[in-house]
Each structure stands twice: as C-alpha cells, then as structure tokens.
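debug: dumping io for the single-chain case to check the tokenizer round-trip. Nothing else runs in this session.
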Amino acid sequence: MKYQQLSNQEAKWKWDYLIQKYRNNEQICRYQEKSLNQQQIQALIENENNTDFIENWIKRHLHPALKTKLDQAIRAKRKRFFNAEHPHTRKKSIDLDFQVWKRLADCSQKMNMTLSETILYMIETQEQKSLYVEHVTDIRSSLEALLKDTNK
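debug: decoded output
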C-alpha cells in the first residue's frame, strides 16, 4: 500500500460519501423495506464521529452495489489527501468553457500529448514567439539607426 490509512479520517470520508449518496436519493442500505432503511440511515447520521460504528455499519448494512464505488472513492480521496502534502504532487484545477476544453482536447489528440503537456507546449511556443518578435524589433530598430547614420 502506497498511502497510509488513517482510520478516523477514512471513516469520516466514508460517512461523508454515504450521506452525500443518501441526499442524492441513492440506495445506500441493502434492505428493500423503507422503514428499515430509514432506521439504519438515521443511526448512521447520529454516529457521525464514531469510527467503529461507521465501519460496522458499512459491513452490515451497505448496499452491495456501493461497495466497490465506496472503495474506489476512498482510495482516490486518500491519494489526493497525501499528494496534497507536497506542492509538486498536488493537483491543481482550472475551469474551462466547453469550447476551450474541446479545442484543447482536439489539439492534444493531434499532437498525441496530455492536456497538461499541450498547455505547456502552447505556453512555451508563445514565449518563444514573444522573444522572437522582441529580437526582430531590436534588429529592426538597430538597422534603422544604422541607416540614419549612413544617410547623414
């Protein structure tokens, strides 16, 4: 295992995940009977800070379809949490309009690069272009000054 598991923290993440699913009207309990579901969900809500209760609740009452999804969500959360400790592994995000993302994605596919690599390539290309324009402007002004001096 690459990342350390912190039981208190992961129990809180699991609780948050399950409550979010419940609030989105998804089935989180394995039971068909609504009153039994409500009873178990209420018990889960009341024991938000009880790590052992949350783990036992998941083992006994979690809907089978959510087991894999919950494990994947917690693994991703754990990875993001530990990667966020170091600036070079921390994920950054930007909001793009759909049209911008689509054009960027198309460019990335054409160049066979990731979105991040494509953005870096475009930035570097623009910086090189700016340096080139600046260099040409300097040469042009030097040439104009030289021509003025020879015409005198």
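debug: round-trip ok. The longest helix spans residues 115-151.
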